[in-house]
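Morning, I've got a small favour to ask if you have a moment. It would help a lot if you went through both lines with me. I owe you a coffee for this, so here goes:
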Amino acid sequence: MRRRRWVGAVWTIMVCSALVMAGCSAGGDTPQGGADGKISFYSPETPDMTKEIGRAYEQANPGSNVDVQYGGTNVIVNRLIAEKGRPMGDLWYGGGGILPFETAEDKGIITPYTPKGTEDWPVKRNGIKIRDENWNWVGAEVFVLGFIYNTDKVEKDEAPKTWDDLLNPRWKGKFQMSNPAASGTATLTVMSQLMERGGEKGWKYFNRLVRQSNAMPDSGSAPSQAVAKGEAEVGVAFDFMAYEMQARGEKVDFIVPEKTPILVNPVSLVKDGPNPEGGKAFIDFMLSKEGQELLAKWYHIPIRQDVESKTPLTLEKVMPHAQELDVDWAVENYDRIRKEWRENYE
């Protein structure tokens, strides 16, 4: 495999529970193919958000029927592999970053498509890879890994600013991160720190960090919920989790660490899906201004530069914090690192 390093490399894998059907169709008789037919949409992202995107597409394309199917990234990938030869899905959106999409290329479960309006997109923008070289996937938004904290319990100036700050005795028993054996958010945390520190020093870091935690739930969003409830004071989270909670009135805020992963979250066309024209049309919609405004509504940083983020963060603001990551190393070592985590901490 060709070796690549990118500043702010964009990746992570989210591992969740069994796949749950969450259809959002308009009902009634609909054509079976094309932009106005049935479109099967696989995603591990927030079900309410993906349902809303599906409904918006249906409204823009009368007669269409969007079937949103939710599941963890690994569950979706395994399903796509099992369905090879007779795929049931048309497009796949999200996985917490590019890593599962990079590995999917070799599995033969996604296929190239150049969405409308992206023809002149470079492979990288501002040091971040925003699309596959062969258009097997295209970034839909930008994620930032960092720290969520409870503003009733923690003053902003005392909140952790670096990953080393999490080791401060101040946070012992008041910190949460999710379980890397199940959560892509935590897998990203572990692999990024092992890259930054090296294997021996990296594992020593986690030996100490695990002792700081009062719980390690399987869900990547659970630490954010614990912080909002006051069950923890600080947690590891993606930016949109914190800002979405903040908008609902939760007493939380977000810190971008001095050096941290910056991620593009992709969308891709399923290879040999039953409705490729519908899949292409839906991807076009997600990258349109209307689709990007929907993502921004859910406090995601849109990939389009003409759509404003609802959070204080922009790509330009977070890029100085971007950690250099080796995506090829992550692909090659993902299973080994998760195995070592289980052996060390479970």
Q: What stands out?
A: The two ends are 32 Å apart (CA to CA).
